[in-house]
Write a structure and sequence with these properties.
The complex is a heterodimer of chains A (115) and B (110). Chain A contains no helices and 11 strands. With 115 residues, chain A is mainly β. In chain A, the strands form 2 sheets. In chain A, strands 2, 4, 5, 6, 9, 10 and 11 form a 7-stranded mixed sheet that branches. A 4-stranded antiparallel sheet of chain A has the order 1-3-8-7, with no helix packed on it. In chain A, strand 4 and strand 5 form a beta hairpin. The model of chain A has no long low-confidence stretch (mean pLDDT 92). Chain B is built from no helices and 11 strands. Chain B has strands spanning 4-7, 10-14, 19-25, 32-38, 45-51, 56-59, 62-67, 72-77, 86-94, 97-100, 104-109. In chain B, a hairpin with a 2-residue loop joins strand 9 (86-94) and strand 10 (97-100). Chain B is globular. The chains are: A mainly beta (115), B mainly beta (110). Chain A binds chain B through residues 31, 33, 40-45, 48, 50, 55-56, 90, 94, 96, 100-101, 103-109, and chain B through 31-32, 34, 36, 38, 42-46, 49, 51, 87, 89, 93, 95-100, 102-103.
Chain lengths: 115, 110
C-alpha cells in the first residue's frame, strides 16, 4: 500500500491552462506539504497544512492555491500555468510529535510539463 | 530564514570506499537534521536523521555527525556499493519547515 499517493503522475498541458494535483496519505499523519523540485533538483517547500490549517506559505505566486478538505488530503490547484511552472511537485506528510520534529514521507511526485 | 549549504555537488568513489557529504546551516534554532536519498525518477527517501541533542548516530553503513557549535553536519557512508549511487540531500528544520541543501550526486564506480 502506497503511504503517500499523488495523482496524476505525469501532467502535460499548454501554457495558460488551469490544472490540479491531488495527494492522499494513509499514515494517519496530521501535517501535509507541497514541495517543488526544479530541473536542477533543488527541493523547496511551498505550502504546509496541519489538520486542514495552513501553517507554511512560502513566497509562491498566488496562481498556486492549496486546499485541504481533511487531514489526509492536500490538493494543489494551479491557474494560468507558465513555462516556469514545469517541475516535479512532491507531496509529503508527517506527524506532529511532542518529542520534536518528525520525519517527512514523500509521495512519488507529479511531473508537470508546460508546452 | 534558514540557509543550508551542501558540498560537494558531485562525488565519485570506488566501490568499497567511504563517501562523506557535508552541510552547514545558518539558523542556530534548527533542531532536526534528516538526510534523504533520491534515485533517478524516484521520490526522496529518508535514510537517517539526527536531532540537536545528539552528536552522532549510526545505522549499519551510514552515520551522521552533528556539530551544533559550528553548525555543521555530515553524512558518512562506508563500504559503498553501486546501489548507493543517487542524489543525497541534507536538510535542517525548525518546527515543521524543512530547508534542503542543494544535493550531492554520488556515483559509486565498480
Amino acid at each position: 500500500d502506497t503511504a503517500v499517493s499523488q495523482t496524476p503522475k505525469y501532467l502535460v498541458t499548454q501554457m495558460g491552462n488551469d490544472k490540479s494535483i491531488k495527494c492522499e496519505q494513509n499514515l494517519g499523519h496530521d501535517t501535509m506539504y507541497w514541495y517543488k523540485q526544479d530541473s536542477k533538483k533543488f527541493l523547496k517547500i511551498m505550502f504546509s497544512y496541519n489538520n486542514k490549517e495552513l501553517i507554511i506559505n512560502e513566497t509562491v505566486p498566488n496562481r498556486f492555491s492549496p486546499k485541504s478538505p481533511d487531514k489526509a488530503h492536500l490538493n494543489l490547484h494551479i491557474n494560468s500555468l507558465e513555462l516556469g511552472d514545469s517541475a516535479v511537485y512532491f507531496c509529503a506528510s508527517s506527524q506532529t510529535g511532542t518529542g520534536g520534529n518528525q520525519p517527512q514521507h514523500f509521495g512519488d511526485g507529479t511531473r508537470l510539463s508546460i508546452l | 530564514g534558514e540557509n543550508v549549504e551542501q558540498h560537494p555537488s558531485t562525488l565519485s568513489v570506488q566501490e568499497g570506499d567511504s563517501a562523506v557529504i557535508k552541510c552547514t546551516y545558518s539558523d542556530s534554532a534548527s533542531n532536526y537534521f534528516p538526510w534523504y536519498k533520491q534515485e533517478l525518477g524516484k521520490r526522496p527517501q529518508l535514510i537517517i536523521d539526527i536531532r540537536s541533542n545528539v552528536g552522532e548516530k549510526k545505522d549499519q553503513r551510514i552515520a551522521v555527525t552533528l556539530n551544533k557549535t559550528a553548525k555543521h553536519f555530515s553524512l558518512h557512508i562506508t563500504e559503498t556499493q553501486p546501489e548507493d549511487s543517487a542524489v543525497y540531500f541534507c536538510a535542517a528544520s525548525r518546527g515543521n519547515k524543512l530547508t534542503f541543501g542543494t544535493g550531492t550526486q554520488l556515483k559509486v564506480e565498480l
